[in-house]
Amino acid sequence: MLSNRFIYIWFGLILICLGVLYAAVIKFLVDDWINLPDFSHGFLIPIISLYIVYEKRREWSKVIFEGQWSGLFWICLGVLLLLVGNLATEYFIMRLSLLLVLGGIILFLAGMGPLKILLFPLGYLIFMIPIPSIFLDRVTFPLQLFASKISADALHLAGIPALREGNIIQLANTSLEVAEACSGIRSLISLLALSVAFAYFSQKTFLKRLFLVLTTFPIAILANVARVSGTGFLAYFYGDSVAQGFFHSFSGWLLFVVAFFCLFGVSVFLSKFKDERSPSKSIDKGSPDHV
Questions:
Q1: How many other C-beta atoms are found inside a 10 Å radius of the C-beta of residue 58?
Q2: Which of 89, 161, 233, 285 matches a 20 to 30 Å C-alpha distance to 205?
Q3: pLDDT (tens digit, 0 to 9) for every residue of the chain, 291 residues total?
Q4: Which residues contact residue 217 at a Cβ distance below 8 angstroms, ignoring those fewer than 6 apart?
Q5: First to last CA, the chain
């Protein structure tokens, strides 16, 4: 079995080779972060992932480094996906193969123990990969219809006459289109990536973390509905130019912050419930059965 120092050296050399192999993939990935507003949060994902690895540094002293040959299977599978994705010009598959190859390298050089420690930060990197357009389009349009319908109902309740036709809201003095950018998918994707990291650090049990992450969906959707409704109010009383001006851009950031504070409130609520401890954790440290 190799010493830890040699494992780190080999891992560093393999990462360099990996950088050469995936240079084009990483370049186009960064270009998407720059040019696609829906995935501009991609720059933060590797930073958060590395910080999670740093937070787990104390666990390394207890882990046993023992590489497994099964890691070669996952490395080969990842490289195969890279080749298939390259032939089919499918960027999502090529980018996903990078995570698979990284996991295979960790398993091959260090073993299952280190892989378990790094599994969450490695899996978290999935949020840096843009969702394929074919899937994104299937989600975006229903969100547009939902936001326009609920917003039109909210305007009716406020006494403002509004007629909805698909994703178009007709007002007395103007019409509002709930475009793809106003569907809420952008804030949902960004908030979901943030909520996963926030849940990991703020909660201790899997169920609490899962519940906090799941609340992201209704919070993000309702926040977007509030944004569209607010735009409708302003358009009716002050004109389309006011609604589509500074408010339209600023409200997106404002409601994203409000949505995060809602997540924070849910986290505080969950923290009031004590985490159940398993009987094995209550065994005295001096007991011979304690590992």
A1: 7
A2: 285
A3: 455 566 667 777 877 888 888 999 999 999 999 988 778 889 999 999 999 998 888 887 777 778 788 889 999 999 999 999 989 888 899 999 999 999 998 898 888 888 999 999 999 999 999 988 888 878 888 888 888 888 888 888 888 888 888 888 888 777 777 776 677 787 888 899 999 999 999 998 999 999 999 999 999 888 888 888 888 887 777 776 665 665 666 666 777 888 889 999 999 999 888 765 544 444 344 443 333
A4: 188, 192
A5: 24
3-state secondary structure of 53: helix
**φ/ψ (deg, to 5) at 66:** -145, 95
Dist CA 190 CA 142 (whole Å): 19
Residue 236 near residue 171 (C-beta atoms within 8 A): yes
Question: What's the Cα-to-Cα distance from 39 to each of 35, 86, 272, rounded to whole Å?
Answer: 9, 22, 34
Does residue 162 contact residue 170 with C-beta atoms inside 8 Å? Answer: yes
Note whether 259 and 215 are within 8 A (CB): no
Consecutive H or E run containing 165: strand 163-165
Alpha helices in the chain (DSSP H): 4-21, 23-35, 44-55, 70-88, 91-109, 112-124, 133-157, 185-202, 206-214, 216-238, 240-243, 246-271
Question: Residue 282 is encoded by which pair of tokens?
Answer: 């209550």
- A 10 A CB-CB count for 230 gives 18
Tokens 């990935």 sit on residue: 29
Q: What is the DSSP string of 250-284?
A: HHHHHHHHHHHHHHHHHHHHHHTSPPPPPGGGGS-
